[in-house]
Design goal:
Length: 81
């Protein structure tokens, strides 16, 4: 299975996965949230995203990145990878 990175503004990724876990039970460790702080600079966000993708790629071989808003910062950063 591919690793899945849920990349969003604020705490949305974490909350989405917590909600899914409450409904479906324990979450799959291949699904990881990454929350971009509202005040985080793009260089720091890019570096964090690079590390998260690398970690999932090393463990699962491939990574699917899901973002919250087309055209938003998370999507724009993810598209560079």
């Amino acid at each position: 299975m591919s690793g899945i990175l849920v990349l969003t503004h604020g705490d949305l990724a974490k909350v989405l996965l917590e909600t899914a876990e409450r409904i479906l039970g324990e979450s799959d460790p291949a699904v990881v949230p990454m929350c971009l702080d509202w005040d985080q600079g793009s260089a720091a966000a890019t570096e964090g995203l690079k590390k998260a993708i690398k970690k999932l790629q090393d463990k699962h071989g491939s990574v699917l990145v899901l973002t919250d808003l087309f055209g938003g910062t998370p999507t724009n950063l993810a598209m560079t990878f």
